[in-house]
Each structure stands twice: as structure tokens, then as C-alpha cells.
Design brief:
There is one protein chain. The chain is α/β, with parallel strands linked by helices and 442 residues long. Helix content is 46%, strand content 14%. The strands form 3 sheets. It has a 7-stranded parallel β-sheet, sandwiched between helices. α7 packs across α10 and α15 runs antiparallel to α16.
Amino acid sequence: MNVCLLNDSFPPLIDGVANTVMNYARIIQERPGNEVIVATPRYPDVDYTGYPYRVLDYPSIDTSRLASGYRAGNSLSMKEINEIAEFGPDIIHTHCPAASTLMARILQYETGAPVVFTYHTKFDVDIGRAVGEGLLKKETIRIMISNISACDEVWVVSEGAGLNLRSLGYEGEYRVMTNGVDFPCGKANPGQVADAVSGYDLPADVPVFLFVGRLMNYKGLPLIMDAMKILGDSGMDYRMVFVGGGDDAGWLKERAEELGISSKVIFTGPVHDREVLRAINSRADLFLFPSTYDTNGIVVREAAACGLASVLIKGSCAAEGITHMRNGYLIDETPDAMAQLLNEVCRDMDRVHQVGDNAMNEIYISWEDSVNRAYERYEVIRDLVADGTIRRRRMHKSDYLIKTAADVAEGLSRIISVPRNIRETITNDLYRIYEGMMSNNE
């Protein structure tokens, strides 16, 4: 099977969805007879030749200041569209509802391959941060829901993610397909752990709490800070370790100073070495993840792989599959609730570690298992297309522009005499027409 994976993020920018795409690509490529191509917006001076699968980067513009480090890809770039079409994908799997899914829709017309979309992230939150809460946010969400609705099959990473997608206006069917983790089951060896944390003040007899991820306040990080203040005022000693970078890292450090807890709070910055990250997880006693933003929380299962239980918000997507006091801890979304629970459970650290072992045995899922399940579904989708069960849905108005863009891309690619800058100008104009059509609902 030839599989095309598309996503708007990829190294050097690392996030949960980029990690997902990398694991999908690696595991599918390892199957005999498979070929994988990953398409992603181009980052300057990045060499993708070292990957065990092909990475095709297409032209992009720098929107990093507006979109927290992300670049916006030109999904109407003819050269790359034609290269992927020549690759001959059997499945096109897109992991972002913006540029990636627009390119997937063009490729669908070019190749006839079915398109699968996975909903990973509550993108309405990120859109609101970028453009505000007004009409522009509403129209951007509508465009993205139109893109998602055009796909042949929609996957979500949790039931809560599906409900969120519904709340944004999606009316089609979806299938829950959970993500895995690339940590092996079990703690890192003591030597690795000692090396990973040697530069940090982590006394042996003091509880260590951990957060790993983008340091963005909408992930519940102010709640953690306020809970740590309450614990400190109660006389409890602890260490709180934040691993990651993000727009709110500076604010969090200033907040720790204001609350008088900076001696107990450690910021490591981003950790890209997976073995080092696994070792840090293995050293901690509890993982704190009070996020109601994340739709799945891969980091919760990464922690579980290391025998580390998580403290989560009741009813959050990350809390799916968690039984309170059995394989994790569930709290109300308040600093007092977190502080009270930590104060209580840390009186019996043996029990805390037993809950962590239960998490490892009960909620851990490897990427191999997750991707193999996805691959089996790919095969079903391919068969449904072959026997005509999956048929072309009624075309939306925007689809005619998608088809036009695909036809123009193919036609211009055959006209060698047309200068590259003119060809790119034409596709950029088509892209602007598309945005105008969707915004005006014409």
C-alpha cells in the first residue's frame, strides 16, 4: 500500500500531532511492500533526507509569531501536488484541517484515492488565540469544518474529541481511533534516570510532580501554579517540574517568583531526546495534567508507560479510561481540589506508585498497536472504494474550485515554457479566490 500522510507540523517543530505522523510513517514503512510519503510545510534550512520514509516539504510562509511557531503551507503548490500524484497513493491521511486537508482534497481529485482525516486538537482554541473571538474566528472554523466534511472518513482520538467536533458544526459520522506512545512499557534504568536529572534539585524523599508539553496557559498551568502555592503554604515540601517550551513559559516563571515557590519549581525547557524524557517520567511520582483543551493527552499514556499515574480533570478528554484511585486521579477544575488531593495521596507514596503501575498495565497502548489498527482500517477503506461502497458525495461549491486548481496544476505542469514564478502566482491567486469563496459563502 502507498500511503500519503499530510500534516501542518513536522520537525523541527515538535508537537503531539507531528509525533503521531512520524510514528505512523515509521511503522507503516516498516511493513513489507509499503511506501510512505509525508507532506508538510517547508521550514527554512531543514534537511529531511535522513528519514526512513520520504518527506516532501512544500512552500510556506512564516506565520510563527501569529501561530506559536507554526508556518502556513501553500497547499496549491503544483510541483509537490504532482509529485504526490505520481507517487500513486492508495490512502491519503490528513492530520490537520487547514492546508493539509485542502491539499488532500486536491489530491483526491488527482488520484481518486480516499481521504481520511484525524481530529487531534481543539483547533477552535488556537484559532481564537490567533485571530480573536469575532467573525473571523467563526468563518475560519466554518472553512475548516467544510474541509473535514469533504473527507471520506473522519477519525477522532477520543469520544470527547468527537463531541467537540460536533459542537463546531460537523454533522457527519466519525470513528474513535486512539493514539499510542513510543515509550516501551516499564521505567528507564536507574543509571539513565540519574543522568537525566543530575542537574536538578530533586531530593530522594520529596514528592516530584511533572508536567510535559507546550507551556500554554490554556492547558491548565495556572491551576498547577496556584495549587503549588497552596501546598507550600500548608508546609508540604515538593518539586514541580515543567518540561517543554511555549508562549507562556516566561509568564509561568514570573508567576512562580510572585507566589514565592520558585525554589520548588523547575523549568527544564524542551527535551527532544526521547530516552531522556522517558527517564524524567520515570523519576517523577505523579503527572499533573489539568487540561480540558487536549483531546487525547498522549503525554498521559507516556507517563503511564513509565508507571506514572496522572491527576486529571473530571470529564476531560484526557480522563477517558481513568478510574479514580485505581489507575489515576480525577479532580474538579480548581487549585484547591488539586492541592487537597496531592496532600492526601502523598501521605502513602507506595499506594501512589501502585496506582502508577495500574496505569501502566491498564491504559498503556503502543504506537505499533495503534497504527496496526489504523492500517487494518485503511485496508477496509481501500476495499470499500474498490467495490463502489464509498461513492463520491454531492459536490460542495468549493469543490469546483478544488477541481479547477487541480486541473490548472496538472495543465501548467505540462507547459514547460511557463516560468515558475507565473505558475506560482496563478496558484496563489486560486488560493485567495478559494478563501474568498468560503468566507462569502458564494
